[in-house]
């Protein structure tokens, strides 16, 4: 009996276009959550099918085999062998790459043995002619005893046929290959194994045995399985034989149904690889691309950022003019609106950063970067696979640290986890952008290179170099034995899918805005309260200042500014700021910047919003200035010079480049390492480095 919503699960090797197919089927009808008990992303979406049917599509993490070697891959097995009926799919779509069909069919044959309706979707079919590939689909279907659909997720080819096949999933054959394989390996052994439980197939029992996933069995059945667990060497030997027999069968099938004629291929891949992975030009191209990205972040984003900055200033001014004077109006105009404006203003720059990263991933270039960087990374205790988390860290350290699960060596993985927060994440970008705009002139070098863009690129390189240096120190001091082999798959070059890029940029930008927005909104309200209220002396400030300047010839506007400034100093936040000022003063900061530093330990991006809130409370000017103008006009009361001068700006940039200011990242490090030892080492070590770097730079430059 078919349910009204068909549960479809997408499974496949990495780089087969599984995510592209998921985007093609679901479009904007997607949601991202976590699998129960783990922090691995679970993507789901709704898809309209022929006959007014709806499918709930689940995109499982990429895996090469149903025998997992990493946490991501273990999710596949746990999902397919779930105890919950709602988690078991009605139909599995195994996505294969037309160029790597042999390897993909190993996973397909394993999935088939679970006896869940399964169909094979061979992706990138639009490239068959160019690659000189021919597939006899009917013969392949007969040999596999399964439905085969040729598709191209990029061009929408075959997608309608795939949907129609999903609707009729009940007609798909359930085939098991394992019984014949078991007879070849050791028929007596597997016959005994089958007797331990009548409700599961021999293949399911074999997976429970080899992967220690026997929670589905009763206590009596588990007891019967115990004798089989003891002989580990036999398990490994039989697993090896199983893989050999599967590949023998796959080779027989492909010999009759799959032909690759290289003489007919018109492939540029090998030529491009020679250029992009060249020992000299490869690095030049990579550096050039990074330069282009950071030039674009400033050049393309300046106009929309100025518009957003002015818009929030106008909104604050309008609200103040329309609403009656009072605490609620002050909360809106001095707390909430400036705080939110401190996040929204950076959407253009963050979207541009994510746009470039998404395009590089879509084209297949990122895998070449991994290969290119492997030799360098190995000298510092990491591998080429560490490059992906380090590059992903430019978006956010949390998913980047989770991405280290693909690194099989614990030492390499631990080192990568510990140094990834040094890479410049999107949360640092708002701080960098506002400070660079304040202290670095908007000039061009050689007529086209932006000085501000080069400064931003330098900060990203500084973060990466700090990560490499820290990795080298950890590599020399961590006494952990490990031997690993570096294996990376080079996907085909392809034109990026506009839809995939758009969805990726939208999802990541939205995650940044709403994730940061919640924190900043809450902190802005708290800061506004602390800056607008104080002890009993706070209420007498206005009277004291008025009496002090009553005999002096100053304008009403200047008097109001002095009252607002004195009130801020005597507020709760002013008292807190004054208390920490001796610690931050040697770095070139006053108590206001010190408050910004403390608040940003919850999340770095809070810094700009904090200063926006503090300066909004301090200023009673009816013509509300933008965030950038407020910071630019802030003066040192002692020297009369700009507070955000070159020395202070560089000091702040270095502090934010090195400091671990993200509680969420510390929490994920604890979860991944299963110890508080490593996140505490991160927090303290990076904090000391940040303070010393900021101190030295300010003392030299001031």
**Radius of gyration, whole Å:** 30 Å
Approximate helicity band = 55-70%
Which strand order does the major sheet show? 2-3-4-1-5-6-8
User: Runs with pLDDT <50, length 5+?
Assistant: 33-39
Which overall shape is indicated by the principal axes computed on the Cα atoms? elongated
Distance between the termini: 77 Å
Strand content: 5-15%
Major β-sheet profile: 7 strands, mixed
Q: What structural class should be given to the helix and strand makeup?
A: alpha/beta
Overall residue-averaged pLDDT value: 80
How many helices does DSSP assign?
A: 31
Number of strands: 11
How is the topology of this model organized?
Elements: E1 5-12, H1 18-26, E2 30-34, E3 41-49, E4 53-59, H2 71-80, E5 91-97, H3 101-112, E6 118-123, H4 128-131, E7 133-135, H5 137-144, E8 147-150, H6 159-167, H7 178-194, H8 202-210, H9 219-230, H10 232-257, E9 258-260, H11 269-276, H12 281-299, H13 302-322, H14 327-344, H15 347-363, H16 365-378, H17 387-392, H18 397-402, H19 410-419, H20 428-439, E10 444-445, E11 449-450, H21 451-477, H22 498-532, H23 541-549, H24 556-569, H25 572-584, H26 591-599, H27 606-618, H28 627-633, H29 646-658, H30 663-673, H31 677-701
Parallel strand pairs: 1-4, 1-5, 5-6, 6-8
Antiparallel strand pairs: 2-3, 3-4, 7-9, 10-11
């Amino acid at each position: 009996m078919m349910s009204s919503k068909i549960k479809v699960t997408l499974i496949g090797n990495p780089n087969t276009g599984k995510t592209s197919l998921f985007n093609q089927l679901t479009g904007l009808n997607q949601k991202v959550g976590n699998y129960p008990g783990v922090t691995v992303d679970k993507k789901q979406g709704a898809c309209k099918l022929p006959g007014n049917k709806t499918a709930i599509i689940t995109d499982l993490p990429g895996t090469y085999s149903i025998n997992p070697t990493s946490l991501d891959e273990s999710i596949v097995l746990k999902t397919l062998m779930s105890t919950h009926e709602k988690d078991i799919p009605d139909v599995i779509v195994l996505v294969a790459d037309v160029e790597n069909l042999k390897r993909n069919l190993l996973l397909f044959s394993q999935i088939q043995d679970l006896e869940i309706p399964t169909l094979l979707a061979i992706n990138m079919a639009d490239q068959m002619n160019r690659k000189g590939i021919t597939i006899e689909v009917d013969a392949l279907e007969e040999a596999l005893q399964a439905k085969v659909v040729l598709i191209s997720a990029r061009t929408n080819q075959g997608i309608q046929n795939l949907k129609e096949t999903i609707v009729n999933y009940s007609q798909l054959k359930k085939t098991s290959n394992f019984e014949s394989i078991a007879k070849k390996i050791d028929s007596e052994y597997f016959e005994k194994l089958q007797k331990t439980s009548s409700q599961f197939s021999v293949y399911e029992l074999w997976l429970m045995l080899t992967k220690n996933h026997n929670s589905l069995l009763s206590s009596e059945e588990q007891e019967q399985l115990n004798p089989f667990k003891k002989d580990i060497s036999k398990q490994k030997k039989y697993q090896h034989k199983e893989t050999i027999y599967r590949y023998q069968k796959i080779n027989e099938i492909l010999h009759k149904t799959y032909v690759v004629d290289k003489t007919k291929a018109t492939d540029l891949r090998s030529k491009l690889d020679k250029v992009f992975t060249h020992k000299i030009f490869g690095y030049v191209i990579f550096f050039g691309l990074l330069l282009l990205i950071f030039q674009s972040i400033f050049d393309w984003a300046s106009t929309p950022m100025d518009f957003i900055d002015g818009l929030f200033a106008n909104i604050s001014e309008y609200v103040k003019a329309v609403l009656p004077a009072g605490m609620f109006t002050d909360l809106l105009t001095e707390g909430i609106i400036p705080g939110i404006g401190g996040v929204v203003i950076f959407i253009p720059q963050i979207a541009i950063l994510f746009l470039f990263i998404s395009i590089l991933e879509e084209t297949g270039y990122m895998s070449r970067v991994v290969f290119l960087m492997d030799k360098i990374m190995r000298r510092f205790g990491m591998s080429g696979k560490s490059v992906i988390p380090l590059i992903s860290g430019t978006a956010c350290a949390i998913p980047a640290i989770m991405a280290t699960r693909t690194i099989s060596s614990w030492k390499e993985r631990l080192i990568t986890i510990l140094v990834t927060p040094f890479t410049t994440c999107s949360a640092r970008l708002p701080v960098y952008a506002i400070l660079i705009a304040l202290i670095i002139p908007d000039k061009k070098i050689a007529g086209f290179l932006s000085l501000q863009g080069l400064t931003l690129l330098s900060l990203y390189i500084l973060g990466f170099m700090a990560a490499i240096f820290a990795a080298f120190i950890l590599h020399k001091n961590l006494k952990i034995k490990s031997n690993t082999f570096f294996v990376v798959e080079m996907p085909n070059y392809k034109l990026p899918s506009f839809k995939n890029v758009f969805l990726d940029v939208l999802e990541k930008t939205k995650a940044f805005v709403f994730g940061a927005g919640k924190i900043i909104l809450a902190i802005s309200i708290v800061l506004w309260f602390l800056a607008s209220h104080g002890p009993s002396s706070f209420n007498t400030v206005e009277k004291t200042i008025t009496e002090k300047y009553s005999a002096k010839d100053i304008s009403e506007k200047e008097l109001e500014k002095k009252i607002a400034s004195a009130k801020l100093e005597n507020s709760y936040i002013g008292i807190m700021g004054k208390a920490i000022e001796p610690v931050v003063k040697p770095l070139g900061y006053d108590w206001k910047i010190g408050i910004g530093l403390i608040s940003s330990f919850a999340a770095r991006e809070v810094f700009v919003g904090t200063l926006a809130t503090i300066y909004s409370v301090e200023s009673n000017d009816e013509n509300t200035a933008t965030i950038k103008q407020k910071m630019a006009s802030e003066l040192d009361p002692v020297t009369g010079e700009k507070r955000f001068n070159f020395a202070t700006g560089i000091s702040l940039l270095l502090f934010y480049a090195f400091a671990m200011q993200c509680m969420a990242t510390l929490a994920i490090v604890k979860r991944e390492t299963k110890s508080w030892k490593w996140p505490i080492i991160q927090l303290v070590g990076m904090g000391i480095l940040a303070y010393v770097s900021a101190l030295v730079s300010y003392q030299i430059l001031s």
